[in-house]
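Cross-posting from the modeling subforum.

Setting up a comparison between two proteins and wanted a second pair of eyes on the formatting. Protein 1 (sequence, then structure tokens):
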Amino acid sequence: MLRKVLIGVGILLVLVIGGGFLLPDVVTVTRSTTIQAPPEAIYPMIATPRQWPVWSPWNDRDPNMAIAYSGPESGAGAKWEWKSASQGDGSMVMTRGTAPNDLGFELTIVGMGPPSRGAFALRPTGAGTQVEWTMTSEMAFGPIGGWFGLFFRPMLEKDFAQGLAKLKQKAEAAPSAPSAHVPAAPPGTP
């Protein structure tokens, strides 16, 4: 009987480890939304680290997160670091920025492997601005990383959806956000 149990455990271990090697070791998540505001009104909310606590789902989960800012106020080189009992310790640095349409960042979570790379793309549309948030993370835990990626992707998708919904709410409610709608031409103009 013990022999059968050991054989069963051995087969299970081979399946788990082998399956982990077959699963992707890189996870990319992309989510987007349309915001009724021009890119110029939205871009500062994502390019300025001090604005992230206003809309980020991670800050909502830990309002006591200790945050330190460094570098420029906004755009490439702007950085924030945090310590959080529930969200982990980490940092984010803006790696590139072409206002008001493109922003790249690098996110590091202590103990979670190499930094993740992400970007925001803002594209004007007839209805406002399409905001696309993308992040690619390497699952650096050997065969366990592939399995972790299966759980990580849905968590990140949920976080992105929540963050974009709150960014939309804040950007559309901002009193200084100019209208994204093109005014009608006055009568008699070609």
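Protein 2 (same layout):
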Amino acid sequence: MGYTLKHRPLVWLVVGLVVGLAIGGLWPHTPLHAVATHGFENFAIATGPVDDELEAVYFLDFLTGDLRAAVLGNQGPQWGKFSAFYHYNILNDLGVDPAKNPRYLMGTGVCDLRRGATRIRPGRAAVYVAEVTSGRVAAYVIPWSMQAHKTGQVFKGALLPLDVTRFRTAAVRPE
């Protein structure tokens, strides 16, 4: 009887593993990034990356127009604790009167803007806030410095407004 691979399933398993590992090692690696957005009554929450290692969580209070962000520390005494905090009030940017029951939508997206030679640069995500009745949307970013973050010190600052535009030409009257 001649030697055939048909009768050697273990050999085929080993050959398959070797071929699979070789292809996996040569295949380009593409990291996956996920963001989350949710709203409840008068609040919205979203997440978005600030760099390759960290992400921010964004909170929007519909009643006050306060947009806040926080980033967890990943080094030193702030490891696993919120160590960077940002704030900005969006009411003036969107031309909203909080007494008129504004309706917001909020989401994040990758916004890897050109970075200059400065140490402070925009984070890798923009947070977009739309007010439905006015038809306006605004974009904001976190001014991010990995060097400052690595010091382990708590940081407080302001979100940076990028732009405001209309996504609807006519304002909607609330019911």
